[in-house]
Amino acid sequence: MQSTRYKKYEPKEKSPFERLLDIFRELITYTSGDVDVALDWLRELDAEYQLTDENYTIDDFIEDLKAKGFLREEIDPDAYGNDGDGQGNGGRLSITAKTEQLIRKGALDQIFGKLKKSGEGNHKTPFSGRGDEKTGDYRPYQFGDALDSISMTESLRNSQINHPHSDFGLTEDDLVVEDTHYRAQMSTVLMIDISHSMILYGEDRITPAKKVAMALSELIKTRYPKDTLDVIVFGNDAWPIDIAELPYLKVGPYHTNTVAGLELALDILRRKRNANKQIFMITDGKPSCLKERDGTYYKNSMGLDDYIFGKCLNMAAQARSLKIPITTFMIAQDPFLQQFVKRFTEANNGKAFYTGLDGLGSFIFEDYEKNRRKNI
Question: Which CDD domains match (predicted)?
């Protein structure tokens, strides 16, 4: 006789490399991909908290990073040959695509929790019809339904009920199919604010913003692989970037031209064939810049400028008329900045997430389309 023994779950103990890799992944996000600075910080943490011992040192960890494909050595031509022997010490370390993907996955796990990859990767809709996800309900067969969607058990049962006294026969009226949700593809533009205010007053807002951006991009790439995703950044102007550039993002000496970002996002989405389109905007709030028709910039960092704010509301309304919802991730807790996001989101009839610098895993969520507010 066999028996099963249950005991309290004990998580598998991480190896020294795995523990250091978790810390290094966080540091490389803060340093915008600067490996040398991240390793210097790691050495300082090691000296203070004894992260390693004589059996496994930081140097061992660095060698493992290179051996496992997380780091690669590159030749720095400016430093090459400076030691006078023609050999030089011009090698420098940089992260690989494997590390970039690890950083995005780490941000996804941190912010949205662990999600299983979906091979089909489409979005549920409230409409039934030919689709991928079964609802558990049955409906009569209709011309054009796939043969593999017919429930033979239920159809045979119907035949016996409908023709109890006749020889066995299966008619079209007996056939039923298992209903499914129609699932749709989505085209998404992810907007990231890289204005100077994202690091102003000693507050690092760009690192949380990058984490949200990387989590969203990894979520879309893994959970909805059939979707399209474009990423743009906006400061004084707006321009597209590759997803691989997210870990390296830095703020510039820019104001916040939210209108330029929205104009570029809508221009990108107009060229997409998908019927379902959306914009994710990650910002710390207040727009402070516009580019005029003559090429000059109108800037005002003091308060919420009515002229700039009006242009932003017009863009929100324009997106709403195109049936393009805007979901805003607000990386700040300033009530003044949140007021802008609130009015902007109301104009678009979209959604907003509010979070502080220390609470990326916890959001205040407002859905203006459904008039709903809740903590997540």
Answer: vWFA
